[in-house]
Each structure stands twice: as C-alpha cells, then as structure tokens.
C-alpha cells in the first residue's frame, strides 16, 4: 500500500461517518448523540484507536442541571462516592474567571510576622496532602412542591472529590500567624471578589489550599488554579480562585455572611456563621424518574456529615414506621459522602421509602417538620431533611411532596 | 548525628524525630510589599478599618444610582429585576422566622452599614464590577441608607460616619451554636 495509512482509513476504510440519533435524557430533554457505526456486531469492525483523551460512552449522558446561579450534580446517575470532576456542582456569584496559572498569586498578610506572596509553584513545593471530602452548598435544598423532581433537583449541590494541596496550617507557620489573630478573610479573584471570614481555628485544624481535584489540576469551575477547602463546612466558605488571606482579630461582616448565608431562626433571631453542614442522606435509586418492577430492589444512596463520619444509615420501606440499617460501602471517611445500599423486596404495594443518616456525634437526620418546628417557616439555608420517595402501584417512583408550614 | 547512628535504642528515636520533623519555615514565596498590600487589601471591617479617604452625599448618590444601578435594581430600589435593595416592610411586619415571604433588604436585614461600601466597591455594578470611584461608592451608599430611612437627606457618609450607623437588624444576629449530637434540632 503506497498511500499513507491514516487513522481514519484504518478505522473506516475512508467510508462512512458516525450516524446521529436523537434520544431523551433523564430530564426528558431531547439530545443529539452520535451512534458508533456497526454497533450491531462490534466483533466485526475494528474500533477507534487510542486517543489523547478518553471519552464517555456515546450511550451515557450524565448532565448537570444549570440555572443562572448554579449547576447541579446528577446524583441519580452516579454509582460511587467520587463525583467525576466535570459533574461536580457549580455555584458562583459572578461567573468563572479565567486565571493564568503563571501570574497567579496568593497573598497572606494582616496579623502575621511575614506578609508573603506565594506563586502557584511555591504552593506546590510545600509538603502536600490529599483528602477525600464533600463540598456542599448550604442552599442545597428545594421546597418539596411537586412529584416530578429528581435527587439532582433536591440536593444536587453536593459533590465529592479527592483534593490535593497544602495544609493551611503549613502556610500559617510559614508566615508566622500572630497568636492573637482569631479570624481570617479569604478572598477570591472572580468578578464577585467573593469574600468570607473564617475562624483561625479552622485554619489550624483541617483547612487546605488545594490545586488538584481527582488527580489533575482543579477545574476552572472549582477554583483553578487554587482554592480554599474547608472540609465539612458550607461550600461558600471554601473560597475559589483564592487570591488573598488577611489575618484579623474579628470577622469582616462581608455581604456573604450577613445578607446571605444567614438564616432566620426562632424568636426573630438571625443565625450567623452557621459553618458546619449537618448530617444528611438521600436515596438516589430508586428515585424519580425510575420505574420499579416487583421483586428484589437494591436501594442505593449517599449519606454524609460535616461533623465527622457517618455512623449509620437507616432505611425505611414502610413510610417511616420501621427503620433498618443499610450497608455502608467502605471506606467511610471523615466529612465525606458515604455510599449505602439496602436490599429490599417490593411486593407491588404503594409505599414510601426514605433514608436517614446518623453521624458519629449521634445526630439523627431530621424530618422537614422537625426543622421547621425548631426554626420557624422563614428558615432557608442548612436544610437537610429526610427525603421520601413514593412508590406507586404501577412502579412509578416520584418525590413525595410535603407541606411547608 | 551521623547517619549510621540510627541503629539502636534511644538514638534511633531521636534520629527518626529529626527526619520526620517539618521545618518551621521552608522559605518559599516572596515578601509582600507595603504598597501591594495597600492596593489589594480592600476589605472593610465593621469598625470602619479599611475605609478609604473621600466622602459622599445622598444627592450625589441619587445621580450614581440612577445612572448605574437603577436598570437592575429599580428606580427606587424595590422594582428589580434583581435584588431588592430598599426594605419594603409595612408597619408590623412579621419576624423573619415566621415568614418565608418577607423580603430581606439593607434596611431590615443587614447588620452593618460598612458591608454596603465593601460589597458595592468589590462587586457592583454587576456589569462593571470595581469600576466606581471611592467617592461614588460613598455616595451610592449614602443614597441606599437614605432610601432605607436610616439617615437624613443632608447626611455625609465617610470613613468616620459610616461605621457609626446603627442598623436595625443588628440586634437580632446570633452566632451559630449547633453542636450535632442528639438534638434539639436548631
């Protein structure tokens, strides 16, 4: 053969291209997908040769659900504790900034001995640490107003990654934090110049400056080239695109810790600095829009707590009358999504299934009614109620709407 | 201690300690200069620390607001389409915990007036963040405070007067005390 062999020739002999078809995604949205040719018998045609980047199967379409302000993780399409980086939820207040890693700088100043500017290369030279933990937005809740909503709609603002970076305590020692400093401001370099005040104690405890997510550089949507990571705390405090840390002897009272991310509680009070995410769980299968068949069903879902490890997950298949322990998939990590499973036989009767997480402090995930009774109907952030799925006689699984009192 | 000393007893422990120990300082990074700190440290504290020189009036603020804010926040700060900036409360409004509908705005929900300056200077106008001069920020802050019935028409807002304004909602703020454990739910 005198003609130079191209990849295309090798694969297709220079003939056809992939066919295109329209399919319905899990949201009922019609999307266009490419169908590999000769899919009828893959043993009769050589497939694509190795490429520079892997791809999803053209038959799989997990998609985040974007709004003007956020984009939710498709929890119902995932099988494990790690969220693929491109499916990690997004929440930011003025878009994703484009930051050149070569000119990136992090300045640490204020109540420190040595105000210092670190380049990205500097941050990467420090001893590094990896940690798997969730990041959840404290606004991760949707009012239970109708049946046709998915786990993604209800609580898709939580995702989990393996994060790698430097402990903030290492940097605190490097710059010599004044023992009298009690708070620090963390500031991003997005167009919102997002800023939050954080107690210095969290900085010494387990805060990190991370530059890698699931083994590669952080995605721009997650704070490229470096972000703060505060395990177990409301996502907004893990400032992305971190450019500055200012040590201080008091909080700064930024807009994001006064006007927003505060919640009305009992007796007309407004609760501030509600950092920790309480324990929560959700059944991700079976859930809307799945269709159930009589017989054995493996109920699956996620549980997590910002206060430590998940101690137990209990599942009820009789609308909350009785509860049974689910199996937890190892590893069960501190402040991390934990995958749970519970084997159940559905006999075809109408029922409701639900899960509740119990964390190592003994906290039991509450019902929506318990939360509203405790705080009042004006509450908004930090809502982590038990979520029930209604199973109808025909096997249709829908969200079970609840009254907001 | 020579390397071969890491062989037995207490000597080994001492040696291990030394090899595992993290140095207090790695020496990475460069010193931040006073000048770059002054440029970058834009956060304002509730006691007014960080507020720049300059000042603004309600009248000047009305001009800035009409030109650069009203298109998104409405002519009087309540019409939208984006966030309501002027508290639309009527007399006897329910406490926030009793109503999921009551609109939260500067006059009824913000605990510190300094936050207005800090936020507007860093993030507004949304379509041109960081484009206002310090005097424009002081002025539009004055306008917002006046529209929320917190200062008079003749007030001058500057680094001295702004932190002194007592916000009505401040007394309702409490710090989170949730601790986990077996309740009560809060």
Overall description:
The complex is a heterodimer of chains A (405) and B (186). By secondary structure, chain A is mostly beta strands. Chain A has six helices and 26 strands. In chain A, 10% of the residues lie in helices and 33% in strands. Chain B has a domain at 52-172: Cytochrome Bc1 Complex, Chain D, domain 2. Chain B is 33% helix and 6% strand. Chain B has a two-stranded antiparallel ribbon. Chain B is globular. The N and C termini of chain B lie far apart (57 Å). The chains are: A mainly beta (405), B mainly alpha (186). β17 of chain A pairs parallel with β4 of chain B.
CATH fold descriptor of one domain in chain B: Cytochrome Bc1 Complex, Chain D, domain 2
- CATH fold topology of the largest domain in chain A: Sulfite Oxidase, Chain A, domain 2
Strand fraction band of chain A?
A: 25-35%
Number of strands of chain A: 26
DSSP, total strands of chain B = 4
Q: What about the largest sheet of chain A? A: 5 strands, mixed
Low-confidence stretches of chain B: 1-17
Topology of this protein?
The complex is a heterodimer of chains A (405) and B (186).
Chain A lengths: L6 H6 L6 E6 L5 E6 L29 E2 L3 E3 L17 E2 L13 E6 L5 E4 H6 L3 E8 L14 H5 L2 E10 H8 L7 E6 L6 E5 H6 L2 E6 L2 E2 L9 E3 L12 E7 L14 E3 L3 E4 L7 E6 L9 E10 L5 E7 L7 E2 L1 E2 L9 E9 L4 E9 L8 H8 L12 E4 L5 E3 L6
Parallel strand pairs in A: 6-15
Antiparallel strand pairs in A: 1-2, 3-4, 4-5, 6-7, 8-9, 9-12, 10-11, 10-15, 12-13, 12-14, 16-17, 18-19, 19-23, 20-21, 20-24, 22-23, 24-25, 25-26
Chain B lengths: L8 H12 L9 E2 L2 H7 L14 E3 H11 L1 H4 L32 H4 L4 H10 L10 H14 L8 E3 L14 E3 L11
Overview in brief:
The complex is a heterodimer of chains A (405) and B (186). With 405 residues, chain A is mostly beta strands.
């Amino acid at each position: 053969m005198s003609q130079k062999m191209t990849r295309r020739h090798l694969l297709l002999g220079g003939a056809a291209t992939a066919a295109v078809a329209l399919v319905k995604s899990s949201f009922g949205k019609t999307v266009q997908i490419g169908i590999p040719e000769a899919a009828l018998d893959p043993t009769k045609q050589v497939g694509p040769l190795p490429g520079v980047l892997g791809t999803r199967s053209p038959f799989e379409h997990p998609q985040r659900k974007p709004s003007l302000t956020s984009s939710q993780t498709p929890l119902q399409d995932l099988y494990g504790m790690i969220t693929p980086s491109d499916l990690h939820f997004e929440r930011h207040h003025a878009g994703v900034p484009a930051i050149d890693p070569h000119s990136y700088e992090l300045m640490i100043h204020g109540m420190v001995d040595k105000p210092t500017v670190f380049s990205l290369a500097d941050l990467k030279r420090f001893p590094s640490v990896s940690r798997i933990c969730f990041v959840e937005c404290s606004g991760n809740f949707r009012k239970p107003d109708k049946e046709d909503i998915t786990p993604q709609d209800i609580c898709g603002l939580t995702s989990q990654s393996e994060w790698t970076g430097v402990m903030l305590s290492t940097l605190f020692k490097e710059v010599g934090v004044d023992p009298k400093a009690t708070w620090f401001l963390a500031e991003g370099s997005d167009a919102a110049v997002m800023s939050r005040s954080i107690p210095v104690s969290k900085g010494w405890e387990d805060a990190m400056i991370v530059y890698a997510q699931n083994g590669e550089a952080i995605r721009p949507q997650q704070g490229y080239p470096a972000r703060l990571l505060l395990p177990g705390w409301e996502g907004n405090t893990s400032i992305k695109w971190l450019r500055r840390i200012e040590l201080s002897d008091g909080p700064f009272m930024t807009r994001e810790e006064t006007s927003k991310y505060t919640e009305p509680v009992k007796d007309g009070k407004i609760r501030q600095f509600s950092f920790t995410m309480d324990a929560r769980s959700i059944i991700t299968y079976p859930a809307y829009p799945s269709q159930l068949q009589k017989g054995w069903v493996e109920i699956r879902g996620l549980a997590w707590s910002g206060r430590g490890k998940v101690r137990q997950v209990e599942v009820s298949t009789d609308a909350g009358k009785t509860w049974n322990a689910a199996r937890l998939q190892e590893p069960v990590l501190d402040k991390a999504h934990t995958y749970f499973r519970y084997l159940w036989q559905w006999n075809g009767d109408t029922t409701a299934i639900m899960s509740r997480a119990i964390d190592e402090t003994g906290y039991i995930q509450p019902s929506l009614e318990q939360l509203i009774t405790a705080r009042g109907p004006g509450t908004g952030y930090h809502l982590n109620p038990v979520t029930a799925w209604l199973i109808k006689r025909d096997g249709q699984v829908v969200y079970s709407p609840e009254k907001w009192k | 201690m020579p390397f071969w000393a890491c062989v037995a007893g207490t000597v080994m422990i001492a040696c291990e300690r030394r090899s595992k120990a993290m140095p207090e300082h790695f020496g990475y990074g460069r010193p931040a200069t006073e000048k770059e700190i002054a440029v970058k440290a834009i956060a304002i504290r509730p006691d007014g620390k960080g507020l720049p020189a300059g000042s603004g009036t309600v009248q000047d603020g009305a001009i800035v607001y009409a030109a650069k804010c009203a298109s998104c926040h409405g002519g009087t700060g309540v019409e939208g389409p984006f966030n309501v900036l002027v508290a639309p409360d009527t007399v006897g409004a329910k406490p926030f915990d009793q109503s999921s509908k009551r609109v939260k705005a500067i006059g009824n929900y913000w605990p510190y007036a300094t936050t207005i300056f800090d936020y507007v200077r860093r993030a507004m106008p949304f379509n041109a963040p960081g484009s206002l001069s310090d005097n424009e920020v002081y002025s539009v802050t004055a306008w917002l405070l006046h529209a929320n019935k917190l200062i008079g028409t003749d007030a001058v807002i500057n680094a001295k007067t702004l932190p002194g304004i007592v916000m009505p909602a401040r007394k309702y703020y409490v710090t989170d005390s949730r601790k986990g454990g077996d309740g009560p739910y809060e």
